[in-house]
Amino acid sequence: MAQTQPVEVLLRPAVELYTVAVCAGCTLLCLVAPWSLALNPLMGIGSALAFATFGAIRLREALVILRYRRNIRRLPRYRMTSSAVPVSQQRLFIGKGFLWEQRHTHRLMQTYRPEFRCYVEPTPAYRLARRLEERLEFAPFPLPHLAKLTRWDVPFNPVQPLPPVGGLPRLHGIEPYEVDVSLPLGERVGHSLVLGTTRVGKTRLAELFITQDIRRQNAAGEHEVVIVFDPKGDADLLKRMYVEAQRAGRDSAFYVFHLGWPDISARYNAVGRFGRISEVATRIAGQLSGEGNSAAFREFAWRFVNIIARALIELGQRPDYLLIQRHVINIDALFIEYAQHYFARTEPKAWEVIVQIEARLNDRTIPRNMMGREKRVIALEQYLGQVRNYDPVLDGLRSAVRYDRTYFDKIVASLLPLLEKLTSGKIAQLLAPNYADLTDPRPIFDWMQIIRKRAVVYVGLDALSDAEVAAAVGNSMFSDLVSVAGHIYKFGIDDGLPEAKTDAKVPINVHADEFNELMGDEFIPMVNKGGGAGIQVTAYTQTLSDIEARIGNRAKAGQVVGNFNNLFMLRVRETATAELLTRQLPKVEVYTTTVVSGATDSSDIHGSTDFTSNTQDRISMSSVPMIEPSHLVGLPKGQCFALLQGGNLWKVRMPLPAPDPDEAMPQDLQQLAGYMRQRYTETGQWWENLGAPGLQDQPLPDDLLDDPTHDDTGQAEAPS
Fold first, then answer.
1. Bigger pLDDT: 24 vs 413
2. Phi, psi of 641 (to 5 degrees)
3. pTM
4. 345 and 220 assigned to the same domain
């Protein structure tokens, strides 16, 4: 209905229905008894058509009022099966909603006025039904059946209960006409941030986005890369990913990496692939604290890990956490092993001199700083001091062993706890895989392989069991992914393959749920510079303070948030988080009406007028924020405000999931999902969930296994 008055008022009685009733009566009279209106039959038909047309117009106007009043109290259901989710090559579907404008702020302000309470608040019958349900819960038979009748969730129930989503339906009901809301895919490279408190729909929105990313194909029939980081381990999200991968024909390229269930998880070496050797040290030492006095220890740890990594590469060994931990604890063995490798190529007779020096060593001739070292290490160090051999790796190892043993243990003390986290128990088999063990059916993957295969990866980090290990592994994966993104940006994804194109890129959709638990300094370059390599990050977290608390620096937290161009704000409880959206919106002018009444006595005692009175409706304008932080606190579950495409504010509600009978999973993944639900939601008897032997004894099915040593072309993939 077009607005023709300065002040729009939709919360009012549907007075148009009176006109509809009169028009219906006149239409009936014109058709049945035209003579009662002094009309002949032909004129009666024409008049009936005129009355019917005018009545239809007024009925349409009345339905607008009735629909508006209904939506203010209760929104119509919006459900959708996964298979019905629209997948486009140009846009990302979000849900149904509308573009928020000035008139919506005006309508929302009207709902808070006292004269409109009867249209906004629940009806007396509704409140009575809810009170009866509370009182009759423990009443004797058959009174509880009356409560079941009032709770009957059917449209013709006059006291039908509201859906358990909470919040204020008016925030979305102020616009009766919804449209499908979507985001152009070109905007996703600018990254998206989803904020919302616990259990308000973040994971549902993630499922909606991930479903489309898995099923989307370009014009050439190529799929996109989908990588999902799930710190807490959501069983429904894992199920959704596998079902969609199977539906899209991508189940052979579906990987599950889960720290909580290493026996069925894929394996991953976070430091096994790199563009520059120094990246190994950066990924490990970068997770150490760099604040205050810890900065010096962090720099030494970086140098020490870099020395070890260079030596391992020269020896033809692929670095992993176990090897690095072994040599951090005992650098002497690596020093001797590398010296044997070096002198075998350059000076085969050097060992004869070294053995002679070793034979002459005793407690008086050993330098104080070398106390506690093996005699062969001391002899080797003294020999290198006598000859003029220059090898940067050998010199680095020599400088490491020259430190006093006690002092050396102190300065690597911060590095050892980190390595212990990553190499304890069965996790060591996941993060330091044995590439030569062909009997292990668990696949080994790296990010470049995942990107080339256009694979789908679920990363469950089991943060509820061990948050420290989850954060360490997540940071390593992020750092590795940033390194791969830099390589793709320079050389393309097909670098090293025949007929490779340097500009070949593929969208890499990274979904990071609870990303505040994973985030460190590694995450900043991913959102800051990863877009050039095709990385499209969608991050999900509760509050802005979670990001700041994780990084420990307000400026860095602002740097992270400032790199997200698209903002989805669900219900939040923190005012600072809500203001992240509201402060970016302009103020708007809204109309307010004021009723002014007055009376004036007449001073003429002989006149015929004793007093005069007047009543006025005054219209004024005031400037108010487009939305307030309190509106974000009152959002129902499954609804959000979305700031898209350079500042356009959309009010969106996501479709609720509807059951789909076609969804099925392999038996072992069903068991994994079942144990995840039990372990992460029923925490009363946590000790019963440990081990889960029934799950761990069963390997993955053949269709989920992949040969990690070969790429799509069948050629063996050489180590970096």
1. 24
2. -100, 135
3. 0.84
4. no
